[in-house]
Design brief:
This protein has 348 residues and is of the alpha/beta class. The protein has one domain (15-330): TIM Barrel (Alpha-Beta Barrel). The chain has ten helices and eight strands. It has a six-stranded parallel β-sheet. A two-stranded parallel ribbon has the order 1-3. Strand 7, helix 9 (278-289) and strand 8 form a beta-alpha-beta unit. The chain is globular and about 75 Å long. The chain starts with 14 loop residues before the first helix and ends in a 16-residue tail after the last helix. Its cofactor is Zn(2+). Keywords: Metal-binding, Zinc. This is Methionine synthase.
Length: 348
């Protein structure tokens, strides 16, 4: 399929779910009760994506408080000096008194999260998780000689999760590195850790790099040229980047940098609640086609949809799907046959 549509990962968290998540952290409801609520919310998010026409869906990351705690808090050896949160979306303070223990299989439960999603949709699923570089930035104390060693240690934990996910049937895995844009000098370090995560796991791998999306605000500004040439060594199939908010000026960076694999083209600005028209989406896709062949483009929002009102998110996805379909129909249309003069039979 040309120009398949997908999401980056997260889905809007309704106010009632925010309250219940916070209640759990304050000891007012049990983990079992919260898990039941999560499952209901995930099924609703899947149905919303299906109704919008999205080709490759996600679980909306609705089990996760934020992009960090779901992973770090479950790692053996991690200590949370203050395990109670005032608000579910806050980050835990994370310390690591001793090196992470040797990895002996998955410990984070991501394969079970995926299996639940697989049981509730017949569409392809993209399953994303925060990458080792970004996770390491949230550890305030650790015993390693430098943070680069911590990054590799976390990558080994995530590799075990990736192996388990593939064994449970995952086919599209995505590593999110939202902190990388704030540390462009560390791109080679981050790429080396990405390669630890993906080693030997035969799925379609995406690498998502944005400029942050905390409370619908970018954490950094810049240009994607910092990715090159180091990102060429990343053993991934697709770069998932934001262009809806930033515009097209970074698109030539992909060609000049030598990127010859797929591109997840961000065409929806998730930091602006205004809904793009299908024509706007189609125009953004057509401009990208000047630099990236259609068979290498995947259409998606810039980042996760967590911070948008649900109605706006649904409308934005519907516009994205309609815009992609309009361009796809143009690409699939047969070339017109020029008129030819009629042949007149000779008399006699």
């Amino acid at each position: 399929m040309l120009l398949p549509t997908t999401v980056v990962g997260s889905w809007p968290v309704p106010e009632w779910l925010e309250r219940l998540k916070t209640d759990h952290h304050r000891g007012r409801i049990s983990r079992t009760q919260l898990d039941d609520v999560h499952e209901t919310a995930i099924k609703a998010a899947l149905k919303d994506q299906e109704l919008a026409g999205v080709d490759i869906v996600s679980d909306g990351e609705l089990r996760r408080d934020n992009d960090v705690d779901h992973f770090l808090a479950r790692m053996p050896g991690v200590v949370l000096p203050l395990p109670v949160k005032e608000f579910y979306y806050d980050y835990h303070t994370v310390t690591l008194p001793a090196p992470l223990p040797p990895v002996d299989g998955p410990t984070l439960g991501l394969a079970d999260d995926f299996a639940f999603t697989r049981a509730h949709t017949d569409r392809p699923i993209k399953f994303s998780f925060t990458g080792p570089f970004s996770l390491a930035q949230r550890v305030v104390e650790h015993p390693y000689a430098d943070r680069a060693e911590l990054v590799v240690a976390i990558a080994a934990v995530l590799h075990a999760e990736a192996v388990a996910l593939a064994a449970r049937g995952a086919t599209h895995l995505q590593i999110d590195e939202p902190y990388l844009a704030g540390h462009p000098q560390a791109i080679a370090e981050a790429v080396a850790a990405v390669n630890v995560v993906v080693e030997g796991v035969a799925v379609r791998w995406g690498l998502h790099v944005c400029y942050g999306n905390r409370y619908a605000r970018p954490s950094w500004e810049g240009h994607y040229d910092f990715l090159f040439p180091a990102v060429l060594d990343a053993r991934v199939d697709e770069l998932v980047l934001e262009f809806g908010r930033k515009g097209d000026e970074d698109l030539p960076v992909l060609a000049h940098g030598g990127w010859d694999r797929d591109v997840g083209l961000g065409v929806i600005d998730v930091k602006d609640p205004d809904v793009e028209s299908p024509q706007t989406v189609a125009n953004r896709i057509r401009r990208a086609l000047d630099l990236v062949p259609a068979e290498r483009l995947v259409v998606n929002p810039d980042c996760g949809l967590r911070n948008l009102p649900a109605a706006n998110a649904r409308a934005k996805l519907a516009a994205m799907v309609a815009g992609a379909a309009a361009v796809r129909d143009t690409l699939a249309a047969p070339a017109p046959v020029p008129d030819r003069p009629a042949v007149v039979a000779a008399a006699g």
